[in-house]
Specification:
With 352 residues, the protein is of the alpha/beta class. 39% of the residues lie in helices and 16% in strands. It is built from twelve helices and 14 strands.
Length: 352
């Protein structure tokens, strides 16, 4: 059996596979419009927003860029804490968009504190909720609250790429104005769709920029059940199918994901591995490599058992390895993965 244990793409949900097995649907037909509207409504429920969720054909990075370029004008000051590869990406997107991006640096694995972002004079704060590169989770409501106390007109944008359907999210309740996500993580679908969730406050502040990334144009089209451009409509069907299955039992699903990730950390830590994040996200378990054991050896040990894992990124490349059960794994399969993990550790760790 093949075990896809990477933090994206992940093992596909059976409902996604079923939807993707259907014949190609033309995107300018009534069945496609109905599916598009259904998917958008379900995504609004998943993000728990009274605003809008736009479906874009592209990756989560496309959604991050669309969020930045459509909410902030060139020259505006934004605060960007950098504590992993994807928060670094938010910073790079802000620079490319012509913003005056002020960077707050943290060692990878650490997370920003509310007092760090309580600074005046900023139009926005850009945060990664679940930092996939380190397995760290930030306290999004506390950070958003601290920032807005100093910047009442400021907007908070969040990367929720590996928190949507993995950790509870609620846009307005968390103080988040806009969020980006993608199809290939917690939604258990193939890569190819990005999502931008916009709160009512963010909708009032849209400053459309770009051509393909013009969210105002997209909003007009998507309210009618279409996209301004050719969408990956069969992926939209898959997203809708998964959400229809998961959302009615979301609390159970989130509890399962949290238990599964804690199971991985338990296996690693009982054998003396050191966790990377100070605050653990349920999306991914990240460990420092054992002393004297290269990543290639760990990767090969998993591969010999039919499993694919991920290594480190940025300054953590060659220093850590990452496992994830974000995909469609039930409780019993997770126990099987834990047993496999123990086998690997028995092989690679020196005898005590």
């Amino acid at each position: 059996m093949d075990w896809l244990l990477t933090p994206g793409p992940v093992r596909l949900h059976p409902k996604a596979l079923e939807a993707l097995s259907r014949p190609q649907l033309h995107h300018r037909t009534e069945p496609a419009r109905e599916a598009f509207l259904r998917a958008r409504g379900l995504l609004r429920e998943a993000f728990r927003t009274e605003g809008e969720v736009l479906i874009l054909t592209g990756s989560g990075t496309l959604a991050m860029e669309a969020l930045v370029k459509n909410l902030f004008a060139p020259g505006e000051r934004v605060l960007v804490p950098v504590y992993g590869k994807f928060s670094e990406r938010f910073y790079e997107i802000a620079l490319e968009a012509g913003l005056e991006a002020h960077r707050l640096d943290y060692p990878y694995g650490r997370v920003p504190r509310p007092e760090d972002v309580a600074k005046e004079g900023y139009a926005g704060l850009l945060l990664v909720h679940s930092e996939t590169s380190t397995g760290a989770l930030v306290d999004l409501p506390a950070l958003a609250r601290a920032f807005k106390e100093q910047n009442p007109e400021g907007l908070v944008g969040a990367d929720m790429v590996t928190s949507l359907l993995v950790r509870e999210v609620a846009l307005e309740a968390m103080g988040v104005d806009a969020a980006a996500s993608g199809s290939q993580k917690g939604l258990m679908c193939p890569p190819g769709l990005g999502f931008v969730a916009l709160s009512p406050r963010a909708l009032e502040r849209l400053r459309p920029r770009g051509y393909y990334l013009d969210l105002a144009r997209e909003l007009k089209a998507q309210r009618e059940g279409e996209s301004a451009w050719t969408p990956a409509i069969n992926l939209v069907l898959a997203v809708a199918a998964v959400l229809e299955e998961v959302l009615p039992r979301l609390a159970h699903h989130l509890a399962l994901k949290a238990w599964q990730n804690a199971l991985l950390y338990g296996v690693g830590e009982e054998r003396g591995l050191r966790a990377v994040p100070e605050e653990k996200s349920p999306a991914v378990a990240a460990f420092y490599l054992p002393e004297g054991v290269p990543y290639a050896r760990v990767k090969e040990a998993f591969a010999q058992r039919g499993a694919v894992i991920a290594g480190g990124q940025g300054p953590l490349k060659g220093r850590i390895f990452r496992l994830s059960l974000m995909g469609a794994y039930d409780r019993y399969e997770a126990l099987g993965v834990a047993a496999l993990f123990r086998e690997v550790l028995d092989e690679i760790l020196p005898a005590s």
